[in-house]
Amino acid sequence: MLFSWKKSWSAYGTPSSSQITSDGTGSANASTRSTGFGPAGGRAFAVSARFGEAGAVDRLADAVTEAFGDAGLDVLVNNAGIGSHSTIGQVTEEELDRLLAVNVKTPILLVQWLLPLLNDGGRVVTVGSMASRIAVQSQIAYTVGKAAVEALAPTLANELGRRGSTVNTVAPGPIRTDLTEPLPAVPEAAAGLTAMTARGRIGGPEDVADVVGFLTGPGGRWITGRTLDVSGGTYLGPIA
């Protein structure tokens, strides 16, 4: 999860801001990633919160409130998530509960907790997945969860619209992340993922981050309640 309190915007819509980050696993990853904000002119700090477990959302929300309570919150990006590689016959109730708790329940509760802090004109972006719109037999629980969380944007956008706030979802395709790290290392898997996209490559985190930056910047002010495909043209045509 990434929260940004923007002070100003550069010519490219990049925020110079204070930021708080949690990777949703309660690990040291969030602390490591937060160090990258400093050179951009902001400050960052990490909060250990294992999403899906009792008290995790409260702990993160309390940290945000303490850090930004006076100034308010301008941007909320729901990005933490977990995957699943089970078919309908394989997925267990425990796996399903965990996945829905992290990928669906947590973003909704974070918005609920932080809505009082959101300034007029604020932005909310949730990271969904284009997998919610295609048939992925081995990821049925994951696709159902992403489809559910994508339904948040239209309703919340309608509720917050009169405040000048926008709410959107970005739906990436195959992206090089910790979640997909093992796949590109397998030649057959890498070739299959590359063949899926019109651009002929697996996306990088920056390909999604740049779109999120646009939506949360001045240029995204008239886009709300939508899911934007950020997949590099995945499944536009025949797979080689």
Walk me through what this model shows:
This protein is α/β, with parallel strands linked by helices and 240 residues long. 35% of the residues lie in helices and 19% in strands. It is built from seven helices and seven strands; from the N terminus they run ββαβαβαβααβααβ. It has helices spanning 29-34, 56-68, 93-114, 140-150, 152-160, 187-196, 205-216, and strands at residues 2-9, 15-21, 43-46, 73-78, 118-127, 166-172, 227-230. The protein has a seven-stranded mixed beta sheet, with helices on both faces. Strand 1 (2-9) and strand 2 (15-21) form a beta hairpin. It starts with a strand and ends in a 10-residue tail after the last strand. Residues 4-17 have low confidence and may be disordered. It comes from Amycolatopsis mongoliensis.
List segments where confidence is low: pLDDT < 50 over at least 5 consecutive residues: 4-17
Strand content: 15-25%
Strand order of the largest sheet: 3-2-1-4-5-6-7
The coarse silhouette is globular
- Total helix count? 7
Give the termini separation: 36 Å
Number of strands: 7
Q: How would a crystallographer describe the biggest sheet?
A: 7 strands, mixed
**What is the arithmetic mean of pLDDT?**
82
- Which structural class is indicated by helix and strand composition? alpha/beta
The whole-angstrom Rg is 18 Å
| Helix and strand run | EEHEHEHEHHEHHE
Protein name: SDR family oxidoreductase
Region (Disordered): 9-35
Organism: Amycolatopsis mongoliensis
Family: Belongs to the short-chain dehydrogenases/reductases (SDR) family.
